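For the sake of transparency, this paper describes our internal protein records without simplification. Because each token names a local backbone shape, the row as a whole describes the fold. One such record is reproduced below, unchanged from the form in which we store it:
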Amino acid sequence: MLRNSLKISGERAETFLQQVITSKVSSLKSGGVLSSLLLDKDACLLDIITLKREGEDNFLMVCSNPKKTKLAKSWLEELSNGYVIFDEDILVKINGPVVIEETQVVASSLVRRERKDITKTIYKNHPELFSLSKPYFIGQKRLREIISFSKPEKKIYNFKNLRLSASKKEKLKRTPLYREHLKRGARMISFAGWEMPIFYSNIIREHQAVRSAAALFDIGHMGIIEIKGKGATNFLNIITTNYVWCLKNGESFYAFILSPDGEVMDDVMVYRRNKKDYFLVCNSINQEKIRHWLNSVNSKQYLIDENYPEKEIEEKVILRNLKEQKTILALQGPNSLSILKNIIAKDDVRRLKKLQKREFMETSISGKEVMVAYTGYTGEKIGFELFVSPAESIFIWNSILKEGKELGVIPAGLGARDSTRIEAGFPLYGHELAGKFNISPIEAGLGFYVKFHKPYFIGREALLRKKISNKIILFEMLEKAIPREGYPVIFQGKKIGEVTSGTFSPSANKYIGLAYVALDIGKEFEIEIRGKNYKAKII
């Protein structure tokens, strides 16, 4: 017997259906069939459906009630286009779009009939139709109110007790370029458990090189973690605040990793090679914590949502620490592109010139493999980060400095990296994010990177509930005085915040800083420095 059915296809078809029906779609293999339910936001039954997977991104859906096929098609189209409210949280959207077409199939072996259409009764008789461990499906919230579930035993992850950096007794780590820094006269300091150069000549000169020519930074202290496997995209979509499905191959974006209670665990860059192969870069001080957290979530043994303890990732992924395989250099400044054009493989120069912000490409320098990413942390319009083998990093470091000498490139340390990022208004973990004030991405002015329209990511609900009464501002001193972290911000005679970072800006020839202040601060205010108030204003 021929029956009307719905063909659902597209790159996002699987994750779309995973959020729309109650069963676990990701476990369905090609040619496989499962029964499931279409629910509305109140967990009321729209219809019992049968789903068949015909390929990686192609599915057939058959309604048990043939008269509801057109209704189901309309419902799915509205969800795909984002034009219908399907959750009490009106911000939420289903991951689309997908293509939905009517077709006909021989359905005698596919249709499952169920006389009773009460969701509670169906769960009692057919609990296998409900995959409660999914991060989200329509009607999931309401189900917890109308059905009693036994809570799974899961561990509570306490990331605050995890060591964040090396203790004083531990030997400082060194990047592969450590001896090169010493040869060039770098002043070395302890930073997040690493021995790193703070400057070579002086911070102002290195800062100016970033703005007027180019500067080369060793950022090999940063953490690099690989995420691979069929579930990699969905894993990162749950772990991070940004919308991973918007990334194309060869693109990257900025995002946050939150704890279940909505606190910032780190801010990261996520890079997509393909939908089964990603890697992320995290802050040096947090790399141990982030690796441990990702492995804990991946184990499915830890609680990721206190309100819905059943929730877990859809499919385990392969996680790998890439610190032994990769280190990172940052070439930043207006002459960066010209320098790279002179040293990369000639066949790749045209691709490099076409590279857009946040894109990356695989190439080589003198036959040595390099991944070049159009990203950076200095606020420069032109700047790149190079992912290279630790064994070949010395050769590439010296090649850039040698071939780029006429274009003004010089080595730069963490001092210029900090002053340029403050000048650009970029946050630093522990200062303008998290830290003693537990500063959220919204307060830091970075809400764009938090996609609340995603039905679920870890920490979403807690972050939505957080009361916002403060914000991060970028300011300049109107009087000659140096703002330092912890200095009080005074407005109308009252302390309304604190300086979180301060520096001298060679570009503006002024002292500038970032501060965490009350929302109602005026444009002009004062900074208290050693008992005296100095005028400042928001930039």
Summary: The chain has four domains: 2-146, 178-222+327-420, 225-321, 469-539.
